[in-house]
Design goal:
about 450 residues; alpha/beta; Rossmann fold; 17 helices; globular; UDP-N-acetylmuramoylalanine--D-glutamate ligase; cell shape; UDP-N-acetylmuramoylalanine-D-glutamate ligase activity; cell cycle; peptidoglycan synthesis
Amino acid sequence: MKNSLVILGAGESGVGAAILGQKKGYSVFVSDLGKIKEKYQNVLSDYDIDFESEKHSEEKIMEAELVVKSPGIPETAPVIQKLLAKQTPVISEIEFAGRYNSAKTICITGSNGKTTTTLLTYHILKKAGVNVGLAGNVGKSFAWQVAEENFDVYVIELSSFQLDGMYDFRADVAVLMNITPDHLDRYGYDMRNYISSKFRIIQNQTSADYFIYCADDEVIQKEIKKREINACSLPFGLSENAADGAGLREDQIIINFNQNQFSMSILDLSLQGKHNTYNSMAAGIASMVFKIRNEQLRESLADFKGVEHRLENFLKVHGIDFINDSKATNVNSTWYALESIHKPIVWIAGGVDKGNDYSMLDNLVGEKVKAIVCLGKNNAKLHAAFDEKVKNMVDVTSMEEAVKAAYYLARNGDTVLLSPACASFDLFENYEDRGRQFKREVRNL
């Protein structure tokens, strides 16, 4: 009798877990309460995997010996609560894949910067000739690759939701970029729960492993003092750093690792701005752990192309810069965006608020923002935060209206910035859809 594996959610991670489960001899059943995309239905059919769309057949699900759930399904969902009451193990796709993975892993998390750092680390390793895979929140499903590829190293971007379903998984190199309030709606509006979730990145690490973290982040610094950390610690920050890790000396990034020193002017980095200096430092340290040579590292940090929907300088129309930062789904991301622009800003903001506190933006908005276009079904919180500070605030309910309104409010030499500080699900499929619609409407001006 085969062990029964139920996969809840049939997106990239769920389908990947189903393929790996089948390969490892499980009897697999995939169930999605939403509509499964046609391309994934076709894959499941091709692999002859049993699935259902737009429903959960509870009797079948409750027979599972192991359940892999999509990171998007909260633990409070009724079906998950019933499984937990039955003491059925419910894990994430990353945890499941980790059981069958023999490659080294670089796992990257944080409230902001994790996608850029993940793609930059992958770029450096790949360019240096490492047999490397890209997984987690970006790239192809980790489980799918473990089932069908043969990489030596994986660079894996992990959200807190993925980390929550990870128990025995161990990262060879764990990278923690920063911790600022995000997704608090999923953590009972308790920052402690969110911090604990992020720190799961270092669970099970031994003295043979590495923990790369931002020494300038107060939340991380406080938390480190409370914990016993087994891994070798490699901090990075904007002050000078004599020990192993990364720091700044004048305008030079200096990375020390195992008696090897790397230096590079921040002016030569392809990614500019303070937040990107952090991203480059973290990726640089991780690469040095994997013995990437200094000249290869320097070349890759200078020619990396950046990430779509993250501070993407898109077009200039009649002297107005249009910047797509749709990936900014929390207030801290938007802070970095506003901080990095040195022209008057027309800011397009709004969406599904995740327990946002906009007060950290007060000074930047006061100094730089001449108008706000509120793009969401409910903009009351944005109005409450900024009505007194910004003379022009406009409410819109579509991207077409948002871009037109911003264009009329901007003048030659200004910047229109889409940096919503909110999730996208009220009006868009996801942040990519929101960013693509923005770019389409800018092209149409």
